[in-house]
Every structure is written in structure tokens, then in C-alpha cells.
Design goal:
heterodimer, A: 307 residues, mainly alpha, MetI-like fold, 13 helices, 76% helix, B: 297 residues, 2 domains, two-stranded antiparallel sheet, globular
Amino acid sequence: MATTTRRAALGRLAGPRVRLFQREARLGYLLLAPALLLLLVFVAYPFLFGIWLSVTNSQIGVNGHFIGLGNFDFERGDTVFIQSFVNTISYTAITTVFKLFLGMVMALLLNQVFPAQRFFRAALLLPWIIPSVLSTLAWRWMFDPTFSVVNWVVIHGHLSATGVDWLGKTTTALTSLMIVNVWRGTPFYGIAFLAGLQTIPQDLYEAARVDGASRWQQFRSITVPMLRPVLLVVLLLSTILTFGDFTLPYVLTNGAPFNSTHVLSTWAFAIGVGGGYISIGAAISLVLFPLLSAIVFGVMVVLRRPE
Amino acid sequence: MAATRAARPVRFGPPRRQVGERFRGRLFRVYIPVAVFTFITLFPFYWMAITSIKSNSELLDHTKNPLFVLQPNLQNYADLFTKTNFIRWTINSAVVALASTSVSLVCSILAGYSLARLRYRGANAIGWGVFVTYLVPPTLLFLPMAFVIAQLHLFNNYLSLILTYPTFLIPFCTWLLMGYFRGIPRELEEAALVDGASRVQAMLRVVIPLALPGILSAGMFAFTLSWGEFLYALVFMNDTVVKTVPVGVVNELIKGDEFFWGELMAAALLGSVPVAILYSFFVDYFVAGMTAGAVKG
């Protein structure tokens, strides 16, 4: 008896609720429409078009025809392509490790109480917000072969007699790229971690202190697990941005010396825009896609793992 | 921060020696590392500034200490304004950044609200779909995108950038705002509905005002990225009068192997000013917005 009345009552409720759901659906799709339309026209379509380009022999102003996987075959024999492939991966991997470590140090420092905190927080964020073309130009000037201020300090500080040919040698040029990338990227990690640190309830630390946990133990068992969601997001965004970084390598070296510091993006630009072989350029930049997907999947698996 | 400080037990008159030790501990644990970080962070900006006010002869003089300037002058700035199109590039950058930020914000607010608050079939899948567009960054798209822009006859047109920048702004802004919208209690919105407001009115009058810090944060993020964007602008804008600051500076202040360092650094400094001002006012919002998105999203 009681159940029937309840069911009847539920049935009466269900009517308007379903209508409400339908209205919500219509409004939901309507509100999504502008964003989806933009993304379809300017992401999905060019992406598919890029796949098509990569299997044709198009050049600038010339619509090519289908040639199968010839462009990818070409890549296999192209030493600069292989070099830039390796560079892209080491550029991303090595800088990410440094940015992660230095960003964590920066966040822990900024989470302390000290005078003029607001100033330091804003100042340390600067490299990340300044257009990277402009800050990279400043670094290029600092690494200038004849007027490098870094070398001036090195020589006058008697650290070395000649200084370092930062951008002129194969080995140091890639390292210079990484230094500038770490300089630019660390603040993003630092500020995101700082934001995460400030959401951790203080009583967790107090409880741990009462139980006699050392600073390191507190960091390991409270800070790191609590930062996991922030860590996931920051790592994802940063690896994707670093992987596809074009501006910094283009402005600092653009492949010099001897095409040794090209990354996939600058090499695709050199071939596609500089050389006019759009289809080969498209094939080069498409290589980023499986790599990015693998990285993103990897980060998700590692960091989503429940404790 | 203030709360945690106040919550700490107050110590009455520790022995003097202990104060000294605590200070020395903090000196090595906090003050010196902060100073090192700040120095490395800010040195390139100091170098920009000092270079921009040097004369060419002083710039290229090996015998003098390069860290200081002997005869500061504003010749580089004057040249930048009179002999190049720098002012025009700044206007172009501002138009493009403001317009693409507005487009992205409107799209992201609507989409974020829809994905966070309304229940309908496919919402989850579409939410993921928006996020997945992050896997196709501009570096992957710029060559086919050039074809699309050519088909639309938008080369050397502001619209080519205003329409393409949102592709990398909308995913992040939507995701950040979804976190924000989820954090606003449903009861507030339901109360408005009970009072006879429509869903759209509830969104405009209740949810969006409450999400304003998040919107501000997303807007700063979008403005920063579009102000500094380089690749699309480099490919799509070839006429000197339509270039943005980054493209104009790289294309026209570097002639082959000749770098006009004084003017370059003056331009770098001036081009950084708008975003630096923005952040000096709103850095707290930005940090707060990032947390909300990261923790709740």
C-alpha cells in the first residue's frame, strides 16, 4: 500500500522532471554551440585536412595528389628529422624534470612567511607571463657570441679564460635552449604548486608534528599526495606546451648551428614554410600527435592511480 | 596565510641566542634561496632595460663594464617610435588580444556552464572532447590552418588570429570555469528558479557574478597567451602594418644577421609592460583561479 502511493507520487513527479531534463538538454547544446563550432572549424577540420596533406605532394599554391606514405618514408631517411625528433624528446623530458624540481622549491619558499611576499610572488611569475619572443630575444643577446654578458661575468669572475660559445656549438646550443625553457617554465609550476599548497589544511601538519614526523616525512606523506591533482594538471599542460614549443627554439637558434638544434616544430616550419613543401611539413608535425597522446596517457595513468 | 600565522601558539620571550639561531636558519632556508631565485628571474629584465638605454657606441665597447650604463639616453626608444611601425604593431596586438580574449571568454563561460551545470546526454563525452583538443597544439595545425585561412581569404586580416587563437584558449578557459561553476552551491541557483527566474536569468544574475574571480583569471590567462602568440601571427600576417608586436620585432628589427640590440631590447621591454601591469594588479585572482580549476576540475 505504502509502496504504491510512493510510486504514484514518484510518477507524478517524473512528469515535470523529464520535461525539465529535455529543456536542460536543449539549453545545454545551445550554450555549447559557439565553442564547439569554433573548435570543429578551426581544430577538427584542419587536423583532418593536415592528415590528408601529409599523404599528398602539395606545395605552396599547388594542390597535390595522393602519394601514400611517401612523405613519412622521406622522414625516415632524413637525418635532420631524426635529430629533431630526438631533440624534441630530450628537450621536453630534461626541462620537465628541472621545472618540476625547481617549481616545487619555489612554491615551498613562497609558502613561507617573509617580508614583501606579494612583490616576490609577482616578480617570480614574470618570466612566464612575458611574451616568450621578447624574453627569448633578451637571452639571445645575453648569449651573444661576442658581447655575451654571461661570458663577461664568467671571464671577469675568473671562472674560465674564454667563456662559453653558448649558441655556436652543437652541445651547448641545445643546453642553452633548455636553460631558457626552464627559466621561462618554472614559475608556472611554482605558482600552481603554491596555489595547491595553500589549499592543504594546516591541521594535517600539526597532527603529523604531534606524532613526531620529520619535515621530510611530512612532505612525503602530506604535501605530495595532496598536490596530486595540481601535479596532474600542471604536468599535462606543461609537457604539451613544451613538446609543441616553437617560439623559443625558433627565436634562440632556429636550428643553428648546422641544423643540430631543430625540434619537430621548427623543422616542420623550415620545410613547410621556408622550403614550400607543405605536405612534408604537415607529415613532420603530425608525428607530434602520437607522441603527445602517449605522453598524456602516461601522465594520466601514473597520476590517476589511486593511493 | 594570516589565519595560520595567528593559529600558531604565541611564544613569550625566547632566549636571545635562540632568536639568532632561528634567524640564521631562516637565512639559509628562506632568504638566500629566495634572493637567488629572484636574481636569476629578474636579471634578463634588468639586462633588457640597461641595454635599451645605452648608445650604440657604448653597447659595442669591450673595454667597459657592460652591467652599468654611463650615458643613459632614450635614442633607441625614439628610433623605435619614429623609424619602425612599433606603435602600429602594439595597436594590432591589443586589438587581436582583446578580441580573441572576449570571443574565448564568451564561448567558455557558456560551454563551461553547460558542461558543469546542465544534465544531458553526451555532456561528459563532449567535456572530454574539448579537453582532447589540447592534443593538437598550433604547432601541429599551422600548416593545414594556413590552407584554411587562405580558403577563407583571411591572410593579413585580424580575423585570421581572432578566430584561431580561441582554439587553444577555449579548452583551458572552459575547464577552469567548469571547476569554478561546480564550486557554486546549486541551492543559490535553485532559489532563483523557485523565485520565477528562468534558467538563463539564473545563470546571468546568480552564477556568473559569483564566478567573476574565475572569469577574471581565465581572461588574464587568455589575454597573456594571445598577447604573446607567435606562430600563427608569423604565418598569417605578412604585411608590416598588420603585424603583432612579437612578429614585427623579430621580422623587422633583425635584418639578416644584423641585430639592432638597443631597439630590440627597448621593444622587448615595452612589449612586456601591458601584461606586467595586468599581473601586478590581479596576481591574487590569477593564483586563486588556478587553484579552483585545478582542485575542483
